[in-house]
């Protein structure tokens, strides 16, 4: 008997497959990241669109039997690069067939905020990065911010946690202030210092988990937005 899955999700990447088919890399509520075969041509299967979808089949590559648009997120050309960055991070850091509680909602929330021309892209990008790191076992978002001295110079080490910055790190500037951690966790990166330090911190943690794999879409982003 064929196993049928009915869920909602997004297309992260598409590639041609044989004649008129494509293999879609999906982020879904039911199975996390998965790959499915979409037969036929057309506009179905676009990026930055939330779909109701269903698939069935045996083996690793299932066949989509339903794909209906629920909501489209209009990203202006400068913001498209941010969307590509979210997709690439998700493809490279999220394992297949493991449902991750809330990640589809966080992804949709990031697209909603990136669609707003009045909001700077830093905050939604940092929030999504933070949620990815939570699923990778980093407890950064669960820190007790009330216990953080805003003026403290701190270092957060992957898989280890928070500690005071060393003399060498103080001299090189390779640390974050307690105020930046408070702002990051509260999703209120209002100052230039907060945005700069949060970007550097999360990039270092993501690079640790990427294990040397490059993130090509970073080159498309403006310096203030990645």
TrEMBL record:
UniProt key word DNA damage: yes
GO BP terms, alphabetized: DNA recombination; double-strand break repair
DNA repair in keyword set: yes
Stored InterPro entries: DNA_rep/recomb_RecO_N, NA-bd_OB-fold, RecO, RecO_C
Keywords attached to this entry: DNA damage, DNA recombination, DNA repair
Single GO cellular component term: bacterial nucleoid
A Pfam cross-reference name: RecO_N
Domain DNA replication/recombination mediator RecO N-terminal, first and last residues per copy: 4-67
Transmembrane segments: none
Top-level division of the source organism's lineage: Bacteria
Matches recorded under HAMAP family: RecO
UniProt function note: Involved in DNA repair and RecF pathway recombination.
UniProt similarity note: Belongs to the RecO family.
The protein, known as: DNA repair protein RecO
Originating organism: Thioalkalivibrio denitrificans
